[in-house]
Amino acid sequence: MSIPAKAYTSDWTFLIGQYVAIAILPIVFWFYIPFFRKLNLTSVYEYLERRFDVRMRLFGSISFMLFHIGRIAIVTYLTALALMPFIDISPLMIVFLIGVLCIIYTFLGGIEGVIWTDVIQGIMLSVAAILIFVVICFNVDGGIVEVFSMSNQANKYFPAEQFSWSWTDSTIPVLMIGFFFASLQQFTASQDVVQRYIVTDNIDETKKALITNAKLVACVPVFFFAVGSALFAYYTQNPALLPADFNTGGILPFYVISQMPVGVAGLIIAAIFAASQSSISSSLNSIAACFTSDIYEKLSNNPTSEQKLRVGRTLTVVAGILGVITSTYLIMSNESEIWDAFNSLLGLMGGPMTGLFMLGIFFRRANANSALLGVVASIATVLWVRSATDLNFFFYGVIGTLVVVIVGYLTAPMFKNNLNSSEIDELSAIKDKHSKTEAKV
C-alpha cells in the first residue's frame, strides 16, 4: 500500500533502494551467513554476549523488539486504513481483529507456521499487484501506453533533480546510501531474517533462499510502483472520483473497493490482509524468540522447553497487544507518510544494532566497554540529529552505524578486553575458516 501511494504522490526514485538490497547480498554470503550458522544460535543477539557481554546482548534484543512493535503498528494501521472509509466498523475494531488473527496463528504455528503462511501470502500479494495494474490500465483512456506517457509527462519516474546531492531530501544518492545501511541491518542484525539462515538444512539452502528472494525483489516491486503510476493516470483523468481531503496513504484500497468488481475487490483486499499477516506474524515470532532466549533464560534457572514455549507464546500475545495499541495511536493521528515513518524508525533503531555487529565481527580490538560507549554515543548522536537538524531520515541509520564502529574502535585501548585472546581468536577463526571454505567453493 505504501509503495503505490509513494509513486502516486511523488515518483519512482525509491525503486532504486530495492536494488541496493540485492547489491549487498555478496557481503552477506561471504561474511555473515557462514558466521551465524557456525555459532548455532537461537537468537542472533547471543553472539553479542559471546563477543562483548550481556549488556550488549540485551541492548540488541530490546532494540529489535521495540522496532518490531513499531513495525507491527505500521502494518496493522495500513491494513485498517484499507477498510476504514468503506465499511461500517470502527477502525479500532478493525485493528483489534487484525491483531487477534495474527496472534492466534503465530501462537499456534511457531516459525514453521510463519514461513509457510509467508509463502502463501507472498504469492497472493504478487498476483494481486499484477491484477490491479492490468485492471487499472483497462480503465484508463489510452491504456498502458497512456499510463506511462502521463507519468513521463509529469516527470514521475526519475527526475533529473533527484540525482543531485541533498542533506534534507530523499534524492537518489541519499536513498542509495540509506538503503545500503538499512538493508545491511535487515540481513545482518535482524532476528526475523537471520533466524531463517539458521533453520535451513545447510548453507546452500540458505543461499538459494536469498537468491530466490533477490530475483523476486528485482521484479515484484516494479509492479507496485507501476500501480502507483496507473492510479495517478486514472485519477488525473477522473479527479471527481476522489473525495475531498482524501488520505493518499489509502489510494490503492480506495480504487480497489470503489472501482473493481465486487468479487475481485474482495480477493484483493484479502491479499492486503494476507500481506499484513505475513509481516506481523514474522515480527511476533521473532520478538518471542528474542525475549525467550535473551531475557527469560537469563532470569530463570535452566527453564524447561515447556516453560520456554509458554513464555514465548505469552510474549506473542503481549507484543501483539502493544502493536495494536501503537497502531491505535497512528489511527488517531491520521498519519499519511507511512513509508517515511517506517524508514525513519528503521534508521533510529537499526543503526546502532548494525554498528554493534560490524564492530564485533570485523574489529578484533573492540571490547565490551568500548562497544557500550559506541552505542551510547550513537543513540545520543542520532537523537540530537533528529531533534536539532533537518537531516534526511535516511542518514539516521548511517550515523547510528558509523558512530558505534568509530567510537567503539577508537576507545578500545582505554579498557581491558572482557574476552581473553583465545575466545576472540575462536570467534575470529569461525569467520576466517568459512571465508576460506567459500573461496575454495
Automatic annotation (TrEMBL):
> What highest taxon heads this organism's lineage?
Bacteria
Cite the InterPro entries for this sequence.
Na/Glc_symporter_sf (IPR038377), Na/solute_symporter (IPR001734), Sodium:Solute_Symporter_SSF (IPR051163)
**Where does it localize?**
Cell membrane
Say yes or no: keyword Aminoacyl-tRNA synthetase present: no
State the CDD domains in the record: SLC5sbd_NIS-like_u3 (cd11495)
Swiss-Prot/TrEMBL keywords? Cell membrane, Ion transport, Membrane, Sodium, Sodium transport, Transmembrane, Transmembrane helix, Transport
The reply on keyword NADP is: no
Could you tell me the membrane topology recorded for this protein? Multi-pass membrane protein
State the similarity comment.
Answer: Belongs to the sodium:solute symporter (SSF) (TC 2.A.21) family.
Cited NCBIfam families = sss
* Name of the protein in question: Acetylneuraminate ABC transporter
The species this protein was found in: Aliivibrio sifiae
Name of the gene this protein is made from: nanT
